[in-house]
Amino acid sequence: MKVMQMRQLSVLFVLGSMSTGALASYELAMYTTSNGAIARYDPVNRVSLGTFGSGLTGWYSNNFVTKDASRPGEVAVLNADGFNRWINYSTGVLKGQFDTRETPYYGNGPMNHTALSNGNYLITGYGGAVPSQKTRLMTNTGVVLSTLSPFGATYVPLSATQGTDGNIYQLIRRDNGGGFFNFYSFVYNSIGTYLGFNDLGVESDQYAYGNVVATNGRVYYSSSANTSTLYFKSQANGTAQSMTGLTNYSYTVTTGWTNMAVGHNGNLHLIQSYWNGTNYTNKWYTYDRLANVMAPTHNLPTTDYAGSLTMVIAPEPGTWGALALGSLVLMRRRRRA
């Protein structure tokens, strides 16, 4: 009888979610793991919703994932083999792929990609045998529209994103000698024309900044996973903007964030993954942009390295079943408590 009641409740939850989805504020997180799979996660109820993509994402385990607004129900997964693959995040079915010809040289820094609102991509990495790292604006068939490298190879791109003003914001590092590094944000228009820059300052750690996202008229920068501390700054859209730092937050581990993504209400979610001597411990942070504070952290339900992160806000109807399953698991936990 109890089993039947739980099944009925699950079905009702799915139907109710589909009919009231427009009023809901659910969030679905997806992050890459060191075994090549992509994990689904409900950060509100803190419930794991299973994994997908294992064996489909390429030869290398270090994937980068992004939500592509032009392909509902799918995520784009960039592998170190240079291929971008689209996978349905509800069914796990591979939907297509293209060769970006962007592959990282071993030990030479990050590779990153971001889907733009028009279906194009920002791909940061090495282009074939070219011995410098660049960000390239390309179509979803791999055609390069623009190369974002206005001042040469000494200005190393780490990541890039599209601002809410439609412009492209590229995170740049430059070695200025003596063990210090300048960090900048180069700004381009939507077709890759350089407009100007913003100055993030000078740091002694080359990994002081490694991630960039944009929301609600601001651009946010956070530290790379390799840094020995945590950095976090933001600026208003545009060029020649002053930087604002997060002044009221604490963290439990002196290592940077592997990635961050925009969630509901423009808040930011960040993952911190570190080796505890036995396996990886992964912590979830949420930054409240209006209060300018970092919410208390909690652990993710995985012992694999958690890397790249993307968020689906108010997921498509095909995802409600997965969310319902997560809620069912949560209800069972509460009944046992």
Summarize the structure.
The chain is built from two helices and 25 strands. By secondary structure, it is mainly beta.
Describe this structure in words.
This protein has 337 residues and is mostly beta strands. Helix content is 11%, strand content 43%. It is built from 2 helices and 25 strands. The longest helix has 19 residues.
Order of helices and strands: HEEEEEEEEEEEEEEEEEEEEEEEEEH
Helix content: 10-25%
Radius of gyration: 20 Å
What oligomeric state do the depicted chains represent? Answer: single chain
Question: What is the SS-derived class?
Answer: mainly beta
**Approximate strand percentage:** 35-45%
Main sheet makeup: 5 strands, antiparallel
> Could you say which overall geometry the principal axes of the C-alpha atoms support?
globular
Topology:
Elements (H helix, E strand, L loop, with lengths): L1 H19 L6 E7 L4 E5 L4 E6 L11 E4 L6 E5 L4 E6 L5 E6 L12 E4 L5 E6 L6 E6 L5 E5 L7 E7 L5 E10 L2 E9 L5 E10 L7 E5 L2 E5 L9 E5 L7 E2 L13 E4 L5 E8 L4 E9 L4 E2 L3 E2 L6 E8 L6 H17 L1
Helix pairs in contact: 1-2
Features:
single chain; 337 residues; four-stranded antiparallel sheet; 2 helices; 11% helix; 43% strand
